[in-house]
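Q: Structure for this?
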Amino acid sequence: MLKHPDAQIISLGIGDTTEPIPEVITSAMAKRAHELSTLNGYSGYGAEQGEKQLRASIASTYYANVGLEEDEIFVSDGAKSDISRLQVLFGSNVSMAVQDPSYPAYVDSSVIMGQTGQFQKDVEKYGNIAYMRCTPENGFFPDLSSVPRTDIIFFCSPNNPTGSVASREQLTKLVQFAKDNGSILVYDSAYAMYICDDSPKSIFEIPGAKEVAIEVSSFSKYAGFTGVRLGWTAIPKALLYSDGFPVAKDFNRIVCTCFNGASNIAQAGGLACLSPDGFKAMMDVVGYYKENTQIIMDTFNSLGFKVYGGKNAPYVWVHFPGRSSWEVFSEILEKTHVVTTPGSGFGPGGEGFVRVSAFGHRENVIEACRRFKELYK
Amino acid sequence: MLKHPDAQIISLGIGDTTEPIPEVITSAMAKRAHELSTLNGYSGYGAEQGEKQLRASIASTYYANVGLEEDEIFVSDGAKSDISRLQVLFGSNVSMAVQDPSYPAYVDSSVIMGQTGQFQKDVEKYGNIAYMRCTPENGFFPDLSSVPRTDIIFFCSPNNPTGSVASREQLTKLVQFAKDNGSILVYDSAYAMYICDDSPKSIFEIPGAKEVAIEVSSFSKYAGFTGVRLGWTAIPKALLYSDGFPVAKDFNRIVCTCFNGASNIAQAGGLACLSPDGFKAMMDVVGYYKENTQIIMDTFNSLGFKVYGGKNAPYVWVHFPGRSSWEVFSEILEKTHVVTTPGSGFGPGGEGFVRVSAFGHRENVIEACRRFKELYK
């Protein structure tokens, strides 16, 4: 921006939503806000775990087919906060596996909790973390036979940043792997509503998952709630520590001690998201970003790049074989004034890739693609 | 409720606000909610540390006289969440001092972080925590000469539950004590707006405090934001670890990794709270609860009880010498159907006391006091 003060910079970098929240949802939040100034509509502290009606609505909307119940849902101020609360639950003396590449919050919170060893500069990895390499060669699903046993496995599908989604068969293997190892699987499904094929939208669609998995999710990328802050974590009653104690009871203690519930206004918004009209409106927002994704994929495909993700996620993972992802990032920024994200920011496995996010106004996405075509024609 | 299904139970137990949020504040939140459904008004992720304007407004409203700046304020979803984020900052290998009695979140979060030793049933204390006894005899300010050195000191003034406020002279001693010991003082000022004498409203009014103290505060008890969720933590740039590294930089990393900012709608509410009209409206809410407090104090005084707190805090701390606080709690509940809080829930130093909260509708407070008078006449 210093070099080119007049440049029209377009950000397809961090995955920040750009489209307005549907009015049926904001109206519900405004209504709740107004009610708080009335004697009958006022409410103070809510349940730390979330309002009963919202928990029930999340359970019936997303988990009816797998039989999760209201009291297995913990409403939160977003997936990022809940990942850290889960890390507090796990404590410092656990070992961890993550997809490589993956959303940085898993590793970053692990470092903060003191779970990791030293950062090894030569391989760009922290000690005591198992990096499960996800590449085009293995279909972005790790070769589990080469993954060591860890206490915790973080797994995100549809994946940020690769945009790939794990199939039912792959997730069945993953659940079995966790079960065999006595690992807890933390499944991040924050992009599940972008899935348009028959891949599982929840880990709990996999038989036996309730005994090994926790699912973290969010309204951020569905309804544009990145600033409103609302998410949830599902912990089945059937998930037990090896001594038989329910993990959900322990997490409940964390939630009640370290958190005081999501904003009641945001919760009113969440409830509106799950009403018939709200849900349809959310799907329209998701559909808009999916159209953006298609435009970006078509662009890079037409330029002869190998492009991954996109189909079931709002991220396009573009391969620049043999090149440094920071170098490509800089080249794109310098020459097209479009911000992307260098793949190596998501772990060493992201080297050679750039993530292009589909969160943007349509005209900006089209203009960015026009510039990409000019640069790489 | 099972025993007396028709009883009109009045809760003066947990400190939950009951009065509507002033309309000037809820209107601002409703407006922000509506704006989120417009192209120009929409915003996604905000700064994890809070919106610049709100940080500036908190700094100028509460800290202009002590010279704290905007970038020393971290906006949060409430004091309880920030206490736990501070505990994550401190880690497991620290020692801790707390007032006894005190708000349970300090000890509870300390236990969860693994800072404490075993619970010693005979004294009702956790190992590795220094309990600083606060009694009528010492004016509810601990005898610092008998307090061992700890890494961290939690201190709440006006105090929950005793309602007592520390004087400038006492806080000067406390700051000196922290400085002499190389301790970090975490000062909880969530009730500061209830102070009506010349006691300090912020620890930073004490010379030298910026080099030893962090201040945690909240909109919950000022504007009725217990359900809306908004607070802040002030960390001066002058607060350094012994190796010279700024504590604020470390906390910034925690906030950016483990949190994604308070809800933008709640932040719009916070900004409205600090507008001239909003501030006046907040002071009216505080004034309402202060009148409640006076009614409760007058009642127990007229019945011959020794009553503490109340003047500068919304809590009345009633002494029942020689009696178990749980027994008194049960007696009051059984015979008057009023919920109070047994003092021992705040630590062993709370034994023999009951906390009566002034958060309630006026007619309920008056009715509760009528029943107290009947029971203890």
